[in-house]
Design goal:
Blueprint lengths: L11 H18 L8 E6 L11 E4 L9 E6 L5 H16 L8 H10 L1 E2 L6 E2 L1 H13 L26 E5 L11 E4 L1 H4 L4 E2 L3 E6 L6 E5 L2 E4 L4
Parallel strand pairs: 1-3
Antiparallel strand pairs: 2-3, 4-5, 6-7, 6-9, 8-9, 10-11
Length: about 220
């Protein structure tokens, strides 16, 4: 691949836009003209990171400015593989939304060089050779595969009904009596009391950083 910084493309969406423009003559030659307004993203599809869907197309009718939106999954990074998924989505973009993966889509996909089950179609030998050559001529793809098994650092914590344990604590030098209760974080913040010995020790796991969200906001607790 070219290594000259002057040939570099700064962003992933621009790389996909450039690749699409280089693919337009192929689509035109097969009477499958592509829309002018197409936006691209390498992210997650609407079915989420755990889905097997590696790409999806949103037709112009779904967009406020009538642009087609093509999304490729973020764990893709090999340029030839990315181009293969891109071609599959471009076939959708060239056809009416209602064609989905029906007969017209299959005919167009086969014409362009895609083979196999249409929802998982991959480039056949001839198309793959063209895409390999295209990948060689393109600047490096400014993207690295995202390990989608990881969790985003700012992913919202699931609200749970975890109950915290409170045990009888020492009072005035007395030994705890073993009286134990479980209560939610909301009530734990108000304190727990043993009927015989008073204040109880609250057991808050180290990983419990947040209490339940209340109307007034989020109550935070530090580990004891």
């Amino acid at each position: 691949m070219p290594s000259d910084p002057a040939n570099a493309i700064a962003t992933r969406d621009l790389w996909l836009h450039h690749a699409t423009n280089l693919l337009r003559p192929l689509f035109d030659s097969l009477d499958l003209p592509l829309p002018d307004a197409i936006r691209f993203a390498i992210a997650f599809t609407s079915t989420g990171r755990k889905s097997k869907r590696v790409g999806e197309t949103w037709h112009a009718g779904a967009s406020a400015d009538q642009s087609v939106e093509i999304i490729l999954r973020a764990d893709l990074a090999d340029p030839v593989e990315v181009l293969g998924v891109l071609v599959r989505q471009l076939v959708h973009a060239a056809l009416p939304a209602e064609d989905n993966h029906g007969k017209r889509y299959k005919a167009a996909a086969n014409k362009i060089g895609l083979t196999g089950k249409m929802r998982e179609a991959t480039p056949g030998p001839y198309l793959r050779e063209r895409l390999e050559q295209l990948a060689t001529n393109l600047p490096p793809l400014p993207h690295a595969a995202l390990n989608i098994e990881w969790k985003a650092v700012d992913k919202p914590r699931k609200q749970t009904t975890r109950m915290l344990k409170a045990e009888c604590g020492k009072a005035d030098g007395m030994q705890p009596c073993g009286y134990t209760i479980r209560l939610s974080a909301k009530w734990a913040l108000l304190g727990a009391v043993c009927p015989k010995h008073g204040a109880m020790a609250l057991d808050i796991p180290e990983e419990a950083e947040e209490a339940e969200t209340e109307a007034e906001g989020v109550l935070e607790m530090e580990p004891s």
